[in-house]
Amino acid sequence: MSEIKLTIDGKQITAPRGRTILEIAKENGIEIPTMCHDDRISQTTSCFVCIVREGKNGKWMPSCSAEAQDGMEVDTSSDMVRDMRKTALDLLLSEHSGDCEAPCTISCPAHARVEEYVRVGRDGDLRRTLEIAKERIPLPLSIGRVCPRFCEKDCRRNVMDKEGVAINDFKRLSADLFYDEYMEERKELTGQKVAIIGSGPAGLAAAYFLRLEGVASDIYEKLPEAGGMLRYGIPEYRLPKDVLDRELAHFEKMGGIKIFCNKELGKDIQIDKLKKEYDAVVVAVGSWKASGMRTEGEELARGGIDWLEELALNGWQGEDPGETIVVGGGNTAMDCVRSALRLTDKPVHCMYRRTEKEMPAEQIEIDEGREEGAQFNFLTQPIKLRRENGKLVLECLRMELGEPDASGRRRPVPIEGSEFEVAADTVIAAIGQKTLAPDGLPTNKWGDVDVEEADCRAEANVFAAGDCVSGPATVVEAVAGGRRTALGLLAYLKGEKCDLPRQINVSRGHWQSLSEEDLVYLFDPDENKRVPQRLIPLEERTSTFKEVSYTFSEEEIVEEGKRCIECSCTAKEDCKLKDFSETYGADPETFGGEKGIKTYNSRHPHIVMDNGKCVKCGICVKVCSEVVNEYLLGFKNRGFKTKVETAFNTTLPEFCTECGECIEACPVGALDWKKKKDE
User: Fold this and answer.
1) Domains (ranges, CATH) in the chain?
2) What pTM was estimated for this model as a whole?
């Protein structure tokens, strides 16, 4: 056989005549991506992801089918070629409507593998549930009790019965059962050490993820005990402090993490000194300054977070506040309302300037507060506070909703002549919190610490994490911020650039826009309703700070797990379309328009066919016919409506041997085994 000489990416190559560019490149260690090529079958040339450019005449060609010619100069890796591959991938994504990842996992701020830990918990392996959760959530005992459950709000089970799976309770039960005996794998200590200012969830998370990689931490806390907002901002009835103490004990057991309390920044410790004594410093001071009501006499009101902190310092044994007005509609406001209800037998009011629908507090907090006796006054705006005859008098206006503002919520507008007054013994302003950034650190227009987006660095070897960067957020968001900061700091200690991998997740859409016909069931879904949350008696709820809710039993959590319909892609760990799209920067939103065929066939006991994911590469059809010597799959229809199907849209015929050849060849999981794994 005669030979040819060609150049690929500047490399001179001699190869046998009659070979494709893709084959020659592969034999010479030059990687060209392809989705539709398989050495065992005839060419399909359908995806064009393997496109290359012939340098002499600028001709574009698919390398999987283009025969190499003598004297060719082939470009496989220039920016121009990469851009063409991105376009090919953008086009494939424009018709791709599967779910790369379960919505519960996508919506989790900590990016925990939610679907996986629910699956193993349903199967009875709750210790494994804890292991998976702790990959991203180092505080499962606390977050299992106080998380706003972003995952459950986006759960596809809402499409069926408006009740997401009780996902958060898998974390809580697994931690309650196994937290004390569990210890994660940790690298040997490197000798590097970081100072962390603040022992709240962000500071603890940063210390945790640094320790996993062998970096030690000293955590400095200004208050008498560790925990930050977990201890001093969340009431005992939601998060018992003996549970928090149990959780914190784990950090010192890990080795390399020490916590020093009663160490106030600017008084007992100085950032400049810490910068010299440690390899790096993490500022995780939270947002502890209560926002004012912006009304005359606001100094007469107690700040919401200040009041909760005082209660915590007194062991949740505060004085009777008497008739109480709490101004605000967020979770801190509801914590104040429900705490006041436990301290007094007088009325407790919550005033909010919008309606209940617009309240940012979690609905469960509002509902339980109402059950406990809270009186809600919606569309009410305080305008002045004064003291009169030993009472506080709050002057207010009635409001009505106008046009939406920048937050997307309808703006409250005063009703002329609607002024009224309410007298109370205590007024608590819980309308927001701010950061008191340490002196010398850069800040943004909101007063939060200003950091580099890539690595969370504020200056030199000083990093920041949590609420003091993002503004007031949830515990799970603070934990996510702590991890992100730890990754940036680890890259800094290695002298590397922090470059987090790009991720895309194609989705079928939010559950509110879907019908049951849009859902993909790998198995017949359990029709049971959500297992109800058991609460302590109402009398105890209103007179004590005992934990309000019970942990699910193992039997209950297994039943609840059966409601999960497992909506992530079965091939999410080895999908070529996802991998190549992330590598080349492709975007599912580049090209709009109709997504095309979205049918699926799960009638086979072990195999699922999902046309929403199919990219029409034809590999499965040819593998079945040319390799297996069967003709069970074929193309149907023409043009945009083309799809791969079985005859008469039936399940795979009985004479399918389940050899799995088509599944192994499919680049996107349009054909796959139903059974998912937790890895």
Assistant:
1) 3-77 (3.10.20.740), 103-182+520-561 (1.10.1060.10), 193-288+435-493 (3.50.50.60), 290-431 (3.50.50.60), 593-673 (3.30.70.20)
2) 0.92
